[in-house]
Write a structure and sequence with these properties.
CATH architecture of the largest domain in chain B: 3-Layer(aba) Sandwich
Oligomer: heterodimer
Largest sheet of chain B: 6 strands, mixed
Number of strands of chain A: 0
Strand order of the largest sheet of chain B: 6-7-8-3-9-10
Order of helices and strands of chain B: EEEHEEHEHHHEHEHEEHEHEEHEHE
Strand content of chain A: under 5%
Structural class of chain B: alpha/beta
Number of helices of chain A: 11
Largest sheet of chain A: none
Number of strands of chain B: 15
Largest interface: A-B, 24 and 32 residues
Helix content of chain B: 25-40%
CATH topology of the largest domain in chain B: Rossmann fold
Structural class of chain A: mainly alpha
Distance between the termini of chain A: 30 Å
CATH superfamily of the largest domain in chain B: P-loop containing nucleotide triphosphate hydrolases
Chain lengths: 253, 340
């Protein structure tokens, strides 16, 4: 079908583009690997503190790290698009009969595939360090990762079409993602947090996602954080698509 | 046959001037025009005249605020998908992907127009031949020279054999050789029956390349026709005089020639006087004789046919050449520095 063929053509072009500028692929997951090697060991002695989730340092920390990877790695996806707008490449795609949605999904698919490969590498590095993970839980976690990547990358593309500049984009992304990260319990579990921070975090979808993926790693599928995170992310993905199609329509202006 | 029909087309943008309050910028203020199938039609005008905005509306990238535009009878606003199959569009930025080779650029475009792999390769080869891309087509586009990149841009715009090809300032920034090569290629497109609609701020280009032009200024079309028609509307020849810039010589020359029976219009810029006369050959000796005895020394005399800049000047009241300043015209008061 023409739609999937177009999606595929854009995807292939973007994968080639990434492979020809591989530095971005490494920048994206260099940070999580540093956290894994240099920060996670600090948690080993903390894991006996009351309130620390069960399962050992790596089993607690790795899921958070994956969410961080999905959030941060995909947040900068729009940089590619800013460049494509500047080169006139996006306009060139938009004057062809290809569907706008197929074009957007062609960009997103590249981001999702990149993220899954990076995540797999992080998990493979964490395993010999002491990570224990339920295989089914890991699969479902990857499902969460896909949702997160689609959400942040879509927002990043919309932002690119509104701002059309890398520097102003970088500031906005930092302002938005840093509090989300701090309030999601990625580095240290929120169970250790004072009540005030806990209550702010209770409206942060990524906090639920981190809790949910921790339970998934332990094979605990009955945690209520799992459906809450799923609904939260699902709604946000729909909203982000609405925003993206709107700004796509206005992109040429 | 009219391939493009535009009626009362309007488009405004919400802009922001500096830090100040938002303001509405009217980029296109209600234009009407028709383009014949198979012609090279040009929009001539300075930056900000509304040329690119109009082109992007026609290319389905922008929705108009008012009026209508149809391509081969299809409305660009309500039937964009069908319109896209008929057109090619090359933006000012070009649109080639720098991280791909020229060939990959062409194959991607072919795929998006729905060609199967075999036809895509065949079409790509045709375009490589037609636009002489073979020398560099397998290198990454980011290493191309300006002229090579432009050729590829146009090849990409031609992949779907468009009925009409839109080129937004195709030769801006090209060296003279690449520019004349590109002109030859655009003429070759016309020979194959493609309608070409381009924008330019070069009068020379509009004159040399276009069958018909519309002169655009501040969102409006101020004159339209073939270059020859537009120039003959001035009816007459341009007599340029350079007078020795001593004392009041330019002012005296102006005073002497203003109202002269053979001089229809006169403009001056320092020591350079431009006169519109009905018959250059007849007027020249008469004018020179009139200046004799006034003490005005003449450094240079030239007789020419009206250029598109003269047309532009007459239609808009300002020159298209940014540096040209029209000091005074026949209707304006004589120079204020004039001492008696």
């Amino acid at each position: 079908m023409k739609f999937f063929k177009d999606l595929g053509s854009i995807f292939v072009r973007n994968v080639k583009g990434s492979l020809r500028n591989p530095v971005w692929l490494f920048v994206g997951f260099f940070q999580p690997i540093l956290y894994l090697l240099l920060f996670a060991p600090l948690l080993k002695n903390l894991s006996v503190v009351p309130g620390f989730p069960q399962g050992g340092a790596y089993t607690v920390f790795t899921p958070g790290l994956l969410v961080m990877l999905a959030l941060f790695g995909s947040a900068y996806a729009g940089f590619t698009l800013v460049d494509h707008i500047r080169q006139g490449f996006l306009e060139r795609l938009l004057v062809t009969p290809a569907s706008r949605l197929a074009i957007l999904l062609g960009y997103l698919l590249r981001d999702v595939v990149t993220l899954l490969i990076q995540s797999l590498i992080v998990v493979l590095i964490a395993l010999p360090l002491g990570l224990k993970v339920s295989p089914t839980g890991l699969l479902v976690t990857f499902g969460f990762m896909i949702l997160t990547a689609v959400l942040t990358a879509t927002c990043s593309y919309s932002l690119a079409m509104v701002l059309k500049r890398e520097d102003s984009m970088a500031s906005v992304i930092n302002i938005v993602t840093t509090p989300l990260l701090l309030l999601s319990g990625i580095t240290l579990p929120l169970t250790l947090a004072p009540t005030i921070i806990k209550s702010i975090a209770s409206v942060n979808p990524f906090a639920y996602e981190v809790t949910a993926t921790r339970s998934l790693f332990l094979g605990n599928f009955s945690d209520s954080a799992i459906p809450i995170a799923l609904v939260f992310l699902g709604v946000l993905v729909v909203l982000s698509f609405w925003w993206a199609t709107r700004s796509f329509r206005k992109a040429a202006a | 046959m009219q391939i493009i029909e535009i009626k009362g087309l309007r488009k405004s943008f919400k802009g922001r001037k500096g830090k100040g309050r938002p303001e509405v910028v009217e980029a296109v203020k209600g234009i009407d025009l028709n383009v014949e199938k198979g012609e090279i039609f040009g929009f001539l005008g300075p930056n900000g005249a509304g040329k690119s905005t109009t082109l992007r509306i026609l290319a389905t990238l922008l929705a108009p605020d008012g009026g209508s535009a149809t391509i081969a009878g299809l409305d660009v606003g309500s039937d964009p998908k069908k319109v896209r199959k008929l057109i090619g569009y090359v933006s000012q930025a070009g649109g080639t992907d720098p991280d791909s080779s020229g060939r990959e650029n062409l194959l991607l475009q072919a795929a998006l127009y729905g060609l199967d792999s075999a036809s895509a390769h065949r079409r790509t080869e045709e375009l490589i031949d037609a636009l002489a891309l073979s020398e560099f087509v397998d290198r990454f586009a980011k290493h191309y020279s300006g002229g090579q990149k432009r050729k590829l841009d146009i090849a990409v715009g031609m992949v779907n054999r468009p009925e009409i090809l839109f080129l937004d300032e195709p030769t801006t920034g090209l060296d003279p050789l690449s520019r004349s090569q590109l002109w030859a290629q655009i003429r070759a497109l016309r020979k194959m029956g493609t309608t070409v609609f381009l924008t330019t701020h070069s009068m020379e280009e509009a004159d040399a390349l276009c069958d018909r032009i519309a002169i655009m200024d501040k969102g409006r079309i101020v004159a339209m026709g073939s270059p020859a028609e537009l120039k003959s509307a001035i009816q007459g020849d341009i007599l340029s005089l350079t007078v020795n810039h001593v004392d009041d010589a330019p002012a005296i020359a102006m005073k002497t020639l203003q109202g002269h029976e053979l001089v229809r219009e006169i403009t001056s810029d320092g020591g350079n006087l431009k006169l519109v006369v009905t018959h250059g050959g007849e007027a020249l000796p008469v004018i020179l004789r009139a200046l004799e005895g006034t003490g005005v020394g003449i450094a240079n005399v030239a007789l020419s046919r009206p250029s598109l800049d003269d047309v532009f000047l007459r239609a808009t009241g300002h020159s298209l050449k940014d540096d040209a300043v029209v000091a005074s015209t026949v209707s304006a008061a004589p120079s204020a520095s004039h001492k008696e």
